[in-house]
Amino acid sequence: MQTTGTSDVTRTSAKQLGDFGFAGDDTVVPFEVAGLDVRGRVVQLGGALDAILSRHDYPEPVSRLLAEAAVLTVLLGASLKFDGKLILQTRSDGPVDMLVVDFTTPSALRAYARFDADRVAAALEAGEISAPELLGQGVLALTIDQGEFTQRYQGIVELNGQSLDEVARAYFRQSEQIPTDVRLAVARQVTPGDDGPREAWRAGGMMIQFLPDSSDKPRAPDLHGGDGAPAARESVDDAWREASALLNTVEASELLDPTVEPERLLYRLFHEHGVRVFDGARILDQCTCSRERVAGILSGFTAEEIADSIEDGEIRVACEFCSSVYKFDPADFAN
After folding, report:
1. Model pTM?
2. Which residues contact 53 (CB under 8 A, 6 or more apart)?
């Protein structure tokens, strides 16, 4: 793919590509390709992701898996039009039995993984480090939480030995019935620093969805009607086929290369159809825990629960996301 010009990439203000700064790392960029009835988002995670993964110091395959989950969560959560959060969580029987990624609008990202160290080590020794092998069988849940006094929405899809991008496609096919395609990439790259070169985590991803304005265009293939029902005939728009084919030409290196900013990549893919780029939103390594919030939770404990929480004369609560440790005097919660 050759980049030969800039005239087909515009922002909402119709500026030319050279008239505005590139989004760069840790900014999710929405876009629209009207000629293909496609909308989507693209992101490159750098410092924010590296801070999250470095803090936990997981085994490398666990970090890679959590990085993929973080990119996917950002791509999905950035579409929320209200104050709230999107929570991606897996529960499975594999060596990595839980991933949790929490995206709070408009920009806060936090994540952690739970795993069996012995089983992960055995998987490493056997070379079984792909996402399906590490996760095993289970489910992925996507939860949308709009806050107090609102009802949570949750969609669940089976993992079924699939990669996370395959699971995302299955989720939208089953739950939202919107044709969706996703590409994810993760790498640990060497970067220069004041104290010499260091390794840092990077990840990138792009998601496209087919959202035709015309009512006579198919929004998705019909889903199977259940046991004994005949399989519905798929009808997929040629524009969607082309958009998906273009997305699948993207190399992992393009999603990860800091010199190939989201705008440049979008131009490479869609310049023949024209692509409209909207203002991006920053992604921050930002936990929502606080001493006050933890104290509020403890204040709801019974006297017996408080007693069970005391260790060496104090109550210690560690945040699994950011590893912050909060210490409390049990007397503060006497009933």
Report:
1. 0.83
2. 63, 66, 67, 201
Domain identity same for 68 and 212: yes
Residues of the chain falling short of pLDDT 50 = 1-8, 11-20, 214-216, 218-235
Mark out the alpha helices in the chain (DSSP H runs).
Answer: 47-56, 60-77, 117-126, 131-135, 164-171, 238-247, 252-256, 262-270, 291-298, 303-309
Tell me, what's the pLDDT at 66? 97
pLDDT digits (tens, 9 = 90+) for 279-319: 999 999 999 889 999 999 999 888 888 888 989 899 999 99
Which structural domain range is residue 256 located in?
A: 9-285
200 with 326, same domain: the answer is no
Mark whether 211 and 243 lie in a shared domain.
yes
Check whether residue 20 and residue 131 sit in a common domain: yes
Find out whether 66 and 58 touch, Cβ atoms under 8 Å: yes
329 and 217 inside one domain: no
